[in-house]
Amino acid sequence: MLQKRASLLLFQHFNRSRIQAIGSRCITNTTDDICTHTGQKWDADDYRLARFMNAPKHVNQNWAVKLIAEVPPKEVTERVVWCDGGSGPEGHPRVYINLDKPGDHSCGYCGLRFIKKESH
Question: Cα–Cα distance between 3 and 53 in angstroms, integer?
């Protein structure tokens, strides 16, 4: 019965000439959608939540941005370093990073950070 109701809602949404006001209705049992790492979040009455009728929406909380932020910056003594993200096919194209300015500098591909260690 619930699947028929959701199918009807989808049909009414896509059939623009026959849309009828049926009121705000939550397709899932939850009233709030889970936010993803891209910021994607829908209202409770959005038709796109129909895909989560039979199973809950699973969002991995270990986002890559958070995980790479936990890796401490590598201290180096050179002014210019390179990063290839790892060895061989696991990495990315080699990029060179200038460390002349103060602070840590991150790789544009993988986010690894480098900092110039001042030595006198």
Answer: 8
The structure tokens 């910056």 sit at: 73
Query: How much helix, strand and coil, in percent to the nearest 5, is found in the chain?
Result: 25, 15, 60
Dihedral of the alpha carbons of 58, 61, 64, 70, in degrees to the nearest 10: -170
Mode of pairing for the β-strands spanning 74-76 and 113-116: parallel
Give how far the C-alpha of residue 16 lies from the chain's centroid of Cα atoms, to the nearest Å.
32
Cα(12)–Cα(71) distance, integer angstroms: 49
Question: What is the pTM assigned to this prediction?
Answer: 0.53
Of residues 71 and 57, more confidence is placed in 71
The residue assigned the tokens 């009728």 is 53
For residues 113 and 105, the answer to whether their CB atoms sit within 8 Å is yes
Which own/partner contact pairs does 59-62 have at CB distance under 8 Å and 24+ positions apart?
A: 59/34, 59/35
